[in-house]
Specification:
Mean pLDDT: 95
Number of strands: 18
Protein name: Acid sugar phosphatase
Radius of gyration: 21 Å
Order of helices and strands: EEEHEHEHEHEEHEEEHEHEHEHEEEHEH
Pfam family, one: GNAT_like
Largest sheet: 6 strands, parallel
Low-confidence stretches: none
Organism: Actinoplanes ianthinogenes
CATH topology of the largest domain: Rossmann fold
């Protein structure tokens, strides 16, 4: 039995944005965490909903940041979407691409013909994030879908994490077409669908994968759907208040401030926690009071035991100065 959390798993599946890097800057400790896992013999995979880069480009980006990665270890929603479409339409079929050049290249490599206009009579529309996507692209997609093309979305993440705060993601662009057509995409490929995770486990021959992510609505929900344990790190989109209010299908097995949590004892990251060092929780019916002081993540683990058992986050109160400051910092 290993003395740290990651040692109990044979594959670590990392999300990228908000976990390993923010836009183009590595998150402190990410490279060290990956290298330590490799040294321990743990297989590594990177699974991203971002469809703006190909697997080889993602691997090169990571390597340039000091995070060792091979193209075969990277699974993208762009590649998964292209493969899925190719399974359902004849070879060479026209597919209208809304997104970055990486998505067009994936469609081309899947034996399909990327097009940009509804006048090309595409059999499918595939929509992924691209920083240059604008009204004209979205309009052509709406026209093609209305004419009968099957609508694939690589993912529906509303936001992308960045050092300046959350930015509009593919889900926000999907919402434009959803509003115009008053309908949802026919197929959503990426997380929280479990395919990226199950594929990673199959490729690695892993029996016990651990998913590491920063978003409850994609990474963690996808892990729950795939039947895998998961670690939420608080370096990206989802924060403490989100975790306290998480529904059952978005609750991680573990939570940590950052990737260093992989190397702490599992019982110091497990969520919820019945008791922790420094903090105390007193519950009265549908209310709970936090007192004491200590590690903020330990307090969060303790509080999840109450909120996941029916105490509204709005009914949490503080019984010490440290608890007052902590709840205030979480917006509670």
């Amino acid at each position: 039995m290993s003395d740290h959390l990651a040692g109990a798993y044979d594959l670590a599946i990392f999300d990228l944005d908000g976990v390993v890097f923010l836009i183009d800057k590595p998150i402190p400790g990410a490279a060290e965490a990956v290298e330590r896992l490799r040294a321990d013999g743990t297989a590594i995979a990177f699974a991203t909903n971002n469809a703006s880069r190909r697997a080889a480009d993602v691997a090169a980006l990571l390597t340039g940041m000091g995070v060792s990665a091979a193209p075969a270890e990277v699974l993208t929603s762009a590649g998964a979407a292209a493969a899925l479409i190719a399974e359902h339409v004849p070879a060479g079929s026209p597919v209208l691409v809304v997104g970055a050049e990486a998505l067009r290249a994936e469609i081309r490599d899947a034996g399909l013909t990327p097009v940009a206009s509804a006048e090309d009579k595409p059999v499918a529309v595939v929509q992924g994030y691209g920083p240059e996507v604008g009204w004209k692209n979205l309009s052509e997609a709406a026209l093609a879908i209305r004419a009968g093309a099957t609508w694939y979305a690589t993912n529906t993440d509303r936001t992308l994490p960045s050092p300046r705060g959350p930015l509009p993601g593919n889900g926000s662009l999907v919402a434009v077409i959803r509003t115009a057509l008053d309908r949802d995409p026919d197929v959503v490929v990426g997380k929280p669908q479990p395919a990226l995770f199950t594929t990673a486990a199959t490729v690695a021959g892993a029996d016990r994968p651990l998913v590491i992510g920063d978003r409850l609505d994609t990474d963690i929900q996808g892990a729950v759907t795939a039947g895998s344990d998961s670690l939420l790190v608080l370096t990206g989109v989802s924060g403490p208040a989100d975790l306290l209010s998480a529904p059952a299908d978005r609750r991680p097995s573990f939570v940590a401030a950052d990737l260093s949590g992989l190397f702490r004892p599992a019982d110091q990251a497990e969520v919820p926690a019945a008791e922790v060092n420094g903090w105390h929780l007193a519950r009265q019916a549908d209310r709970a009071t936090l007192s004491g002081s200590g590690d903020p993540v330990d307090a969060l683990r303790l509080l999840c035991g109450a909120t996941w058992d029916g105490v509204p986050a709005t009914n949490l109160t503080a019984g010490s100065e440290a608890a007052t400051d902590l709840l205030r910092s979480w917006g509670l």
